DNA sequence: CCGATTCCATATCGATCACTATGAAAGTTG
DNA sequence: CAACTTTCATAGTGATCGATATGGAATCGG
């Protein structure tokens, strides 16, 4: 588990001249927009409003800064996904995940697409560890959704032969793909129709349903 | 339209000491594996087996080299997609696209995932033109699939109220998402089950079908 | 006010980036 | 063979990469 560096105010010494959380948010937006390797330290320091030595003193290095930024990004998705685990059905949970993803990918105050999908989609061998860390977050989300589906299967809300791993993988794949379409300029209403179409792939609960 | 530089053998002068097509293929594999901005010239020249001046003399610069490599990559997908336009139905065409994508993303002799999905998923402002060129290829594929769907709708093979744009967008989104899952280590059989699950989102042709 | 501690601003560090100047090498043409 | 054309290998260009050394500035406990 990645642990966020605690922001403990020192008893002595010169105080921080910037808000650590606000600066981290700007770093997150920069990584979101331009990716991990393709965001330079100078671009990050410009966005965060601090100098390079301040960045390294406060966050360690570029890798640790990104991991913290990713945690900040995935934070609300985690809460979202946790809330969705309390959704009435797994299908409803998946639908809410898809809608929330579309809204997050097409926000007017944030970059297009998904940080988890784009920030390390490509990269040199030098950033293999970071790529793996991002992949781990994706896999965690997929696993939670799979378990949510398994719950419905065991409760008889979904057919016993439901492949929960495939269904969870499909939802994650659609979300990651919607990130690409959002980057390509697809607007929110359009992406929502795709998300809605994706839920048609869900198996019917019990008896045949028209839709 | 991007035109491939013609390989015209000069009548005089020292002949090329390398196979231009083979070297381009190695460049394509490098961009596929490590992305556009995150593949360095030194990495490219090492993979292609040529020196930097030879690369620049033969292909222009890094950007043109990538555009040629992308054309080489998209070449067979274009043929594939052209062949799929002759598939019996739009749904069958989409299924073939999905299966072909899974096979391409999980080949043992090639990098994981999709070059079109990952090579420019992130990047600085400096590579905006390249990112746009890649997005254009994606949009072209989506448009061709949409038109294939429209054909089935006009022929009564699909419901008249079918949203062909959403359906095409869903297929493209799933393909791009499968690229991410392939990069995360998902094996071919697993990804095929996801592709199969995605086709369940397709509207029923005429009367109710059990599957 | 003083020493200790911490952070800030300036000015870099060596390494690598995309790219190229230069002259020798390898062909064709006569 | 000599003149011409094109490519080759070597070595480097200025710029930027991630990361830091250094010394002064700001706040603390005493």
TrEMBL record, chains A, B:
<feature type="domain" description="HTH tetR-type">
    <location>
        <begin position="17"/>
        <end position="77"/>
    </location>
</feature>
<keyword id="KW-0804">Transcription</keyword>
<feature type="DNA-binding region" description="H-T-H motif">
    <location>
        <begin position="40"/>
        <end position="59"/>
    </location>
</feature>
<dbReference type="InterPro" id="IPR009057">
    <property type="entry name" value="Homeodomain-like_sf"/>
</dbReference>
<dbReference type="Pfam" id="PF00440">
    <property type="entry name" value="TetR_N"/>
</dbReference>
<keyword id="KW-0805">Transcription regulation</keyword>
<dbReference type="InterPro" id="IPR011075">
    <property type="entry name" value="TetR_C"/>
</dbReference>
<dbReference type="InterPro" id="IPR036271">
    <property type="entry name" value="Tet_transcr_reg_TetR-rel_C_sf"/>
</dbReference>
<keyword id="KW-0238">DNA-binding</keyword>
<protein>
    <submittedName>
        <fullName>Transcriptional regulator, TetR family</fullName>
    </submittedName>
</protein>
<dbReference type="InterPro" id="IPR001647">
    <property type="entry name" value="HTH_TetR"/>
</dbReference>
<dbReference type="GO" id="GO:0003677">
    <property type="term" value="F:DNA binding"/>
</dbReference>
<dbReference type="Pfam" id="PF16925">
    <property type="entry name" value="TetR_C_13"/>
</dbReference>
